[in-house]
Design a protein that fits this description.
The protein is an alpha+beta fold. It is built from 17 helices and seven strands. It has a domain of 173 residues: Hypothetical protein, domain 2 (Endonuclease III, domain 1). 47% of the residues lie in helices and 12% in strands. It has a five-stranded antiparallel sheet, with helices on one face. Helix 6 packs antiparallel against helix 10 and helix 6 runs antiparallel to helix 13.
Amino acid sequence: MAAGERAHRVGRAVKPGAASAVSRSRRDCPVAAPYRLDLTVSVLRRLSTNLVDVLTPDGQYARVMRGPRQPVVARVSQVGPQKLIMTIEGDKTEHGAAFKRMRRILGVDCDLSHFDVAAARIPWLRVLAARMRGVRPPRYPTLWEACVNAIVFQQISLRAASAIMRRFVVALSAPLDTADGPLYAFPTVAAMQGAGDDALRAAGLSRGKLATLRRVGEALASGAIDEAMLEARASPAAAAVLRGIKGIGPWTAAVILLRGLGRLDVFPAHDTSVLRNLALVPRSAPTEIGRVLRALSPQQGMLYYLLLLARLEHRGDVGRASVTTPGAIVHGRRTARQEVE
């Protein structure tokens, strides 16, 4: 049984690297300007109630990542328009892999020059793109995390899905005691597959979504699907593989490809939130969305992120420090008032 699982069973936090010597390393991470860590983390986590992707009051991004032996704590700060500083704490043998995963999560290597040029030609989008300039497309560190997020966020509001995800994380992942307070790693496939239906239903998952998550977990555990398989396919073919799992439709497959594989050539179609978010952008016209997507191709997925930022800006939740307060969580659930906040 892993250290995190032992701690979860007895209800106590663990410290990173508890079974081996804790080491800390720091690396400079050059980025092409403009780059904005606050915007990128905002579209990654969606709401500041996210327990896994944490933005601290001083603007630092913090996240626990699981390694083969021990979890590590990664922290990222922006110290200039072209420079991030990444710090990894934990088992030293896992630092190199953790740095690579953080680059992936924060989209630092993505070239958005095509999108920038195309967006500048669309009057209403030009204004929004200029205001959000510096955001990069984030990617979840694993296909599993991308699948869980896409499935949980199916057909419900941003606020409701975020509350369910928060309870899901608390129910299946032990907090790590860090300098930033308790931090949570994203639950593993094994943790979810080993949990009873009652515990997962108590987190707010519907029967249908729970069944879909279990099917995805089985497919990943058996090797029926994996990231390499999807990476080797063009987006339409990769989406078809995902849609072969009952419970994953076109919208969910597109979100998995966008957020999990960084496929900017997909756009989650028939998303009612897109129309709501468009309404927040002055002079935008929902009827022209098809034409806009064609003009932005093959990076039309960035529009999804910019419209999400418009929604978060409207809520006052762009770059806001994460609301962790794990002590307020009782048995993996929060009151309705706490979820809203």
